[in-house]
Each structure stands twice: as C-alpha cells, then as structure tokens.
Amino acid sequence: MSNSKSLKLLSHNVVYLKNVYWYRSQFTLKKLQKCLTAESLQVLYKSKHFLILNKPYDLVLYDYHKTFRTQKTLFELIKEKFPYYFDPRLTGGFHVLHRLDSVTSGCICIPLNYFSQRIGFDAFRNGNADKYYIALVHGHLKFEQVDSDGMFELDVPIGEDSTRLKYARCTPFDISGKKIENCVQPEKAISRVKILEYGTYKSKDCSKVLIKPITGRRHQLRVHLKYLGHPIIGDTCYGIDDFDSYRTMLHSYRLNLKINTKNRMFIKAMAPDPFVPEVDPDWRPNCFVNKLNI
C-alpha cells in the first residue's frame, strides 16, 4: 500500500484516503463515525430476559482479534450502560443469540442470562424467530413472479470463496447458471425479497427492498443480492467499489420472537428505518411498489 498523500496506512486498519480517515472493517473501507457513547444506544425492548438494541452501523459486537480500533465495541457500550448484566466469564461479557455483520445496523437481541439464552436459541432453532431487513441496492430490481405478499423466494446455496479472505462467501453458480469453481462447501440458503420502492441514490438508479432470511448463512443477504446482480449500496466486499457511500445500506428492521415457555412470550421489536429522505437526503424515491407491512 502506498505512502502517498492519496492513500496512507496509518495503523492496522485505519487508512487516510482522499483527505478522509477510513476504517477497514470486515473487507470494507468506510469513513470513521464519530465516537459512539453508551447514552446513544437506542433500547427497543427490555425485560428480565432479553435486551434488544438498535445497533449502529460499522460497530462490532466485541473485539474478536484484539485489533487496533478507534471505536468501542457494542458489548463495551452495553457494559457502560447496563453494568449489572456484564458477566466476566463470557467472551465479550454477554451472551450471544444471533449476530449482525459489523456493517449492518438495526435489531440485535442480547439474552441477559443462561436461561434466556437457552429459550432464545430454541426459538431460532424451531423457526419461531422472524428477522426482516431493509436494504438499498444498485439498479432497479425486477421479478417476473412473486407471491400474494409481493415476495420473491430465492433458493440459492452459499459456500466459502476459496480465492478470498477467510469469511468471504459466494454462490456455486451465477444467475445465468455458470458454475463458479472457487465456491466450496455450499450449503442451502433461502431468502425472500420484496421490492418496496424505486428511486435514485446520489443520482444513480436504486431499489429499496425488504428481505427475510429463511436460513442463516454468513453474509447471506449480501451474497444473494449480489447473485441477483443488484448488490447493496456501500457493500465493497460483494458489490461495487462505491467508497463515496458512508455505510453499507443494510438494516435489521424488525425482529419477532415467540418464546415457548410455561408463560409464552411474544416479543416484537422494530428499529426505525434509516433509508428515508428525512434521514438520508441522497435517497430519493420516485416510484412506490409495495407497502412495508410485516
């Protein structure tokens, strides 16, 4: 990597590029956010069993590799806000029920004790957990056939990409059916996609979509949207090198949990949609397609 003024490696994963400091996070290069504080964490749901937060984008759960960081982890922020839930016996100090990529914002559920973790895992394992995501993708996505809810079901396996870094994923064939030789150990992966709106982002055609993962493969939604030829805006791992985007436009919008215990629990949490013109004026919708009804 060059030491020129245009591109300079300042540390293990901080880069100076085009007069801006960037953070290399899980194969992506993003502008550094202002430092987050514990007070800024948005609580969507809280009980004696579960804590559901609106995770900011470009924020890791905890520091897996003890790398240089300019930002605290989500678990460090939770420890500051709710110190009485911290358990030093656990990796990162908290239970993990499911994960969000560091680049993804939105609903994340933290079990607050061992019992909560067990009943939460049961909900995910038994199909009683529904997750819904919103994304902005490049181009105008179109489907020839959808169901009565306006959803298109994509059933395409996902495997490891042997030519890239450790966590990169790919499909074993492209949308034309051509085999991708570097895809190894593919596993079944199903996603349901609904087109919500067409519009432009920074004057380029894009679509706003709702996505429901049926299976839970690593990077599943990002890889499936790439397979369709409409990668997520800002996803420099699986899409176009659009470094001008301040984030990867993927958001965990809603999480529904049905907990089957003696006293049944129905938990619903929704993280406000960040992809609206009032929040991001670069997104300009111009054609409504389907309602965002869940």
TrEMBL record:
<dbReference type="GO" id="GO:0160147">
    <property type="term" value="F:tRNA pseudouridine(38-40) synthase activity"/>
</dbReference>
<comment type="similarity">
    <text>Belongs to the pseudouridine synthase RluA family.</text>
</comment>
<keyword id="KW-0413">Isomerase</keyword>
<dbReference type="Pfam" id="PF00849">
    <property type="entry name" value="PseudoU_synth_2"/>
</dbReference>
<feature type="domain" description="Pseudouridine synthase RsuA/RluA-like">
    <location>
        <begin position="49"/>
        <end position="226"/>
    </location>
</feature>
<dbReference type="GO" id="GO:0000455">
    <property type="term" value="P:enzyme-directed rRNA pseudouridine synthesis"/>
</dbReference>
<dbReference type="InterPro" id="IPR050188">
    <property type="entry name" value="RluA_PseudoU_synthase"/>
</dbReference>
<dbReference type="InterPro" id="IPR020103">
    <property type="entry name" value="PsdUridine_synth_cat_dom_sf"/>
</dbReference>
<protein>
    <submittedName>
        <fullName>RNA pseudouridylate synthase domain-containing 1</fullName>
        <ecNumber>5.4.99.12</ecNumber>
    </submittedName>
</protein>
<dbReference type="GO" id="GO:0003723">
    <property type="term" value="F:RNA binding"/>
</dbReference>
<dbReference type="InterPro" id="IPR006145">
    <property type="entry name" value="PsdUridine_synth_RsuA/RluA"/>
</dbReference>
